[in-house]
């Protein structure tokens, strides 16, 4: 028997730190099912419920970048996921890196050990730093989640394939066909407000304070520079439920389908053995990343802040959460589980069924 659904006030109490948020903190939580919004609650200083606050999407926006590359693969007979990255990024056509494939970029198996933190670096400088990175051969078979390197390279591959800058290419390939209003770096979106800053922290130490620098949003790899409202994130993840049913170009529908199809297992992050996740070409899949004992197969990504994009195609549920609070990994994981549990209660489903 499932628990009673939560009220909006109870949902705000689930947010972290919710009503106790420090000055400047903002959170927003949405749950939809079958395309119908079940809840939309916000918390923070002076924030009204449903306020259309823009958040930095960080890793939760990476599937948008992956979808752009996958569409190019599906629509061109001359491009394949087994192509070497060096075919499109000559700086990686070197000894020790020639066998790194496009698929490896999307599934965290490049073995490249350097993760750039580009504070105003040019693409050439970032690329030279990556090209000179040592390669961990174990990382070619046991994937390690890469936050920056692979996704910066994906952006360069997209530019080579389209002959255009990566932002315009992703807009044409994914954002515009889906009708999504997502900003990049310092670029303004009419009516959406400026790109947010991430300067409120509730844990110490905070290793990600550099993300608050506006120059990083403008200069870093495309996924990191993305920002937008949680409503737009909800819309995107909603497209991952039966993408063929939305009247999209066939290549884009196939790309979105690829985001939820598992292609491997054994993905670990934060240097631990406890989170053994499955992955697709651009997202986590399965259920381990939500928490042991989770009852359903899902897909999505979340960021170091805890900003979350999540879809359960079988139950047609989408869960999204945005925050400008920096958290360390343990609080983020606990909040992720708590938010998902609350979302499923809204749908009258046991997300974490007890063993019989």
Describe the structure.
The chain has 356 residues and is α+β, with helices and mostly antiparallel strands. It has one domain: 3-Layer(aba) Sandwich (Beta-lactamase), CATH 3.40.710. Helix content is 30%, strand content 16%. It has ten helices and 13 strands. Strands 2-1-12-11-10-9-8-7 form an eight-stranded antiparallel β-sheet, sandwiched between helices. A three-stranded antiparallel β-sheet has the order 3-6-4. A hairpin with a 4-residue loop joins β8 and β9. α2 runs parallel beside α5. The longest helix is centred in the C-terminal third of the chain and has 18 residues. The protein is globular. The relative contact order is 0.18. About 4% of the residues have low confidence.
Task: Put the structure in a nutshell.
The protein has helices at residues 8-14, 62-75, 102-106, 123-131, 149-162, 166-178, 214-219, 230-238, 250-260, 329-346; strands at 26-33, 36-44, 54-56, 183-184, 200-201, 226-229, 264-267, 277-279, 284-286, 298-302, 308-312, 317-323, 325-326.
């Amino acid at each position: 028997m499932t628990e009673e659904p939560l009220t909006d006030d109870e949902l705000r109490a689930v947010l972290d730190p919710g009503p106790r948020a420090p000055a400047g903190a903002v959170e927003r939580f949405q749950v939809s099912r079958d395309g119908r919004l079940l809840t939309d609650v916000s918390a923070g200083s002076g924030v009204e419920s449903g306020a259309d606050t823009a958040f930095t999407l960080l890793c939760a926006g990476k599937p948008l970048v992956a979808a752009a590359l996958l569409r190019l693969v599906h629509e061109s007979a001359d491009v394949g996921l087994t192509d070497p990255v060096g075919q499109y990024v000559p700086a990686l056509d070197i000894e020790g890196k020639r066998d790194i494939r496009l698929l490896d970029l999307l599934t965290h198996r490049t073995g490249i050990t350097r993760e750039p933190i580009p504070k105003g670096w040019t693409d050439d400088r970032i690329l030279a730093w990556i090209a000179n990175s040592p390669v961990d051969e174990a990382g070619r078979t046991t994937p390690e989640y890469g936050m920056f390197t692979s996704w910066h390279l994906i952006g360069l591959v997209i530019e080579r394939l389209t002959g255009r800058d990566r932002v315009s290419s992703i807009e044409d390939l994914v954002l515009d066909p889906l009708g999504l209003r997502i900003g990049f770096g310092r670029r303004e979106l009419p009516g959406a407000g400026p790109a947010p800053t991430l300067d409120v922290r509730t844990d110490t130490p905070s290793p990600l304070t550099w993300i608050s620098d506006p120059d990083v949003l403008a200069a870093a790899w495309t996924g990191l520079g993305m920002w937008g409202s949680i409503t737009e994130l909800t819309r995107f993840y909603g497209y991952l439920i039966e993408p063929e049913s939305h009247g999209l170009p066939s290549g884009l529908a196939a790309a979105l389908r690829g985001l939820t199809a598992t292609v491997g297992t054994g993905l670990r992050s934060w240097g631990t053995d406890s989170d053994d996740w499955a992955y697709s070409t651009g997202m986590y899949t399965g259920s381990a990343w939500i928490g042991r004992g989770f009852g359903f197969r899902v897909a999505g990504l979340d960021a170091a802040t805890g900003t979350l994009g999540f879809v359960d195609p079988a139950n047609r549920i989408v869960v999204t959460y945005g925050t400008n609070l920096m958290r360390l990994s343990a609080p983020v994981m606990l909040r992720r589980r708590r938010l998902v549990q609350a979302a499923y209660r809204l749908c009258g489903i046991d997300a974490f069924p007890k063993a019989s």
